[in-house]
Specification:
alpha+beta
């Protein structure tokens, strides 16, 4: 598609392949490193409480997904959902990240951190006997608390929030004579 016909509100990603790989593997490294530290220094100990209980570091193995959803499923079902299906999703998201030239920088960054966080949790699920994920961070005031989470979960949530934000942005209307991107691609040789 000629540059003058591209949507000016969503320029194609200038996020280089190197930057995408850095975000993915950097997140995996940080996530796995913090989980290693949690296993070595927090497992089996009382929670570490900071800022009057606002922030806690406490060890947990989560066999489920976000907020332990699916933790009561059998190990076989969790394997198929949380390893096989999530692995397939991550493969597809990675393919889109590196092949879709119409992604803008925000969407490319969001996908990169979702993939990095997903790989971090997939490593845990693949290497642990119960297919669980190491969680160790908790926020809250009194009894009003988040679930226990990890660095990968934060990256995934940020990526999902960014994708949601971008999906609700209004797209500029076409000017007379402009061809919608889907039709322009279909009509190109």
């Amino acid at each position: 598609m000629p540059p003058e016909k591209m949507n000016p509100a969503s320029p194609p990603s200038r996020l280089s392949t190197r930057a995408k790989l850095l975000w993915i593997f950097g997140l995996v490294f940080i996530d796995q490193g913090t989980k290693y530290l949690a296993v070595e220094s927090v497992r089996g100990k009382a929670p570490l409480v900071y800022f009057g209980g606002l922030f806690r570091i406490e060890f947990a193995i989560n066999p489920g997904a976000f907020l332990s959803l699916g933790s009561s499923l059998s190990p076989e079902v969790r394997f198929w959902i949380f390893i096989v299906a999530v692995g397939g999703f991550l493969f597809g998201a990675t393919w889109v990240l590196f092949r879709d030239r119409t992604l803008d920088n925000v969407n490319a960054f969001a996908l990169a951190i979702i993939v990095g966080g997903g790989i971090g949790n997939l490593i845990d699920r693949s290497l642990r006997a119960n297919h669980g994920v190491v969680d160790f961070l908790n926020l809250g005031i009194g009894d009003l608390r988040t679930g226990i989470f990890n660095v990968a979960d934060m990256a995934i949530m940020l990526g999902v929030i960014l994708l949601g934000y971008k999906s609700f942005q209004t797209k500029p209307s076409l000017k007379p004579g402009d061809v919608p991107p889907s039709r322009a691609e279909a009509n190109s040789p």
